[in-house]
Specification:
The complex is a heterodimer of chains A (117) and B (213). In chain A, the strands form three sheets. A four-stranded antiparallel beta sheet of chain A has the order 2-3-6-7, with no helix packed on it. Chain A has a four-stranded antiparallel beta sheet with strand order 8-9-10-11, with no helix packed on it. A three-stranded antiparallel beta sheet of chain A has the order 1-4-5, with no helix packed on it. Chain A is mainly β. Chain A contains no helices and twelve strands. Chain B has one domain. The chains are: A mainly beta (117), B mainly beta (213).
Amino acid sequence: MSSRGHVSGGACVLGDGHFAVFGGDVDFGNSTTSSCEALTFDGELAQWDRLPPMQEPRSCFACAAIGGDVIVTGGRWWGPGSESVEVYEEALRRGRRLPCDLPWPGGLRFMGSAVMR
Amino acid sequence: MVVCGGCTPAVGGRTVSKTSDVWRLDLSKLRWERMPSLGCIRTSHACCAVRAGVVVLGGYPGDVEGRNEILEHDSVEEEEHLFKVLPPLSARGVLLRGLLTIPLAIDESQSVQGQVVIIRERGGEAASSSVVQNVDLATGVCTPLPPLLYHHGISTVVQLRAWEMDASFGRWTHRLHVREFQRRASSISDQTQTQRPVLNGAGTGAVRARVPE
């Protein structure tokens, strides 16, 4: 498991009730890099497990759990921005890019996001 | 899923472009649809779903603390459903610029427009602690709540099972984080049971959507 903390990542509650974190910036002292790491936490076992990494590193992005899927889009504080949208499908334990990039060429970050019922 | 405000990255000399745009991703069609824009350009704001709408609090640029907004309905076609300005918050400094503020909508039915619990770093010399406030959206009245039991810089907060355990994820290692969880999980309900409202955290949605292959 990674020994470095992440900032500006995304998080949500998966369909199984577990806490999940995605991406974020990792400080290596003289440089900062966005991560594509994804982890889930089992509160009963007090244990972190890896999820398939995101297709792209991201920080300062939008993240939402919707009906067994986790949608992430945009972000990245350092380096080029991301305009892609990815879904992590919990039942299949797989992530994939969706063919619907953000309508902002070059990407978007520091945005707000919510799931409307 | 609704995305609002934000800015483009500054790469290769390109100018950062901030926006008030609001877009909704239709997961059945895999298509972004434009929604009514925010009342002003915003980045790094607090945003969450409240009842059937979206509330937006604080953020950059400038003096937006008094320009909190709410979109009350899912309104792609209905132009009359614009973002409405909410009353200013009764407590100054609750939404400090430059400090990440995380909103969690409260599951309640008595207030006119709903309530939100906001959590942020305290900032300045007291950066090792947190600010937690309950905000009534209809009146702007802020009520202080107990700070997080442990605080090392907040990255994100979600609600896991009702209010028995919540979790923050910040500037500490994953290993430390696990210990943090264990301590918080065993103590938070005892210490704050009578003070904490029921939270519906970001990401706990029961919305059903099928993402096409």
